[in-house]
Amino acid sequence: MKIAIGNDHAGLELKNEILAHLQELGHEVVNLGTDSPESFPYPVSGYRVAKLVAEGGADRGVLICGTGVGISLAANKVHGIRCCVCSEPYTAKLSKQHNNSNVLAMGARVVGSELAKMIVDEWLDAEFLGGRHQTRVDMIMEIEEKQSLGASDALK
Length: 156
Ligand code: RB5
Known about the structure:
Layout: E1 2-7, H1 12-24, E2 28-31, H2 42-54, E3 60-65, H3 69-75, E4 83-85, H4 89-97, E5 103-107, H5 113-125, H6 132-148
Helix pairs in contact: 1-5, 2-3, 4-5
Bound molecules: D-ribose.
D-ribose (RB5) binds near residues 10, 65, 66, 69 and 70.
């Protein structure tokens, strides 16, 4: 799989561990985050990764900041992105099976590196289940599309 990874300064160490882990698993990893411990705004990395995934340049994205929250908020502003912050493997797995998440966010100040690897592994191994879940994901994407067209009410 081709995986884009991004981070801010708070996520640097964990990013490096996850990047190495993904490469060990045989994935191609595109590093779009900062490699410096200097302060770096998480929206930049969140946007870079989300844009590449949304455009089809990567199969999935992994984002890491202090909590995973800010960087996921930025990623979710990009059309086509469903980014979920996960602190344990169960939510990560279900975020793919039910929500078809295409970007995973984690907080380096929240999860340790071994737990983060388990979260990533469960997420990458999971498959979207479709069916009734597809209907709901379609509704999410309908909100996005209609909002961007300026509709006053996205869903009936
Ligand atoms: C940086 O201090 C921190 O705000 C950032 O990494 C992230 O946790 C934001 O959501």
